[in-house]
Amino acid sequence: MMLVVILTVMYTFLNFALFLGLTRGLTAERRGSHYYLHSHGAKVRDITAAEYHRHRALWLRGFSGHWILFSLIPFVYFRYVRRPSNANVVGETGAPSDLERGRGP
Fold first, then answer.
1. Is residue 29 within 8 Å of 46, Cβ to Cβ?
2. Angle, to 10 degrees, between the axis of helix 2-23 and the axis of helix 49-76?
3. Cβ neighbour number for residue 31 with a 10 Å cutoff
4. Helix or strand run (H / E) with residue 36
């Protein structure tokens, strides 16, 4: 399992590096039928519709790559880090549970 975690983290950082390299930190915008790239609100250059869609796909890929890591963090926490307290484990006290006594839902 540790191998999966390591590979996921490596993929996330590689994906982020590729994302930054391919987008150069620019954002694609569309105003009517006009497409352009901008950086911090300043227009950089005009682009075609195909370039616009490619750029938007790269942004989606960057987002989804990070979403994998953000989903992995709670999984690792609840699976490996957080230990349940003894009070939450059924039968730990030695006394019969409410279900065993017939007082269940």
1. no
2. 150
3. 7
4. strand 34-39
> How many domains does the chain contain in total?
1
- Rounded Cα distance, 73 and 100, in Å: 36
Question: In which domain, by residue range, is 63 found?
Answer: 22-82
Contact 70, 64 (CB under 8 A): no
Q: Give residue 44's Cα distance to chain centre.
A: 29
**What digits encode the pLDDT tens for the residues 11-38?**
888 988 888 888 887 888 888 888 988 8
Element of type H or E holding 81 = none
54 domain-assigned: yes
Show the tokens assigned to 28.
């694609």
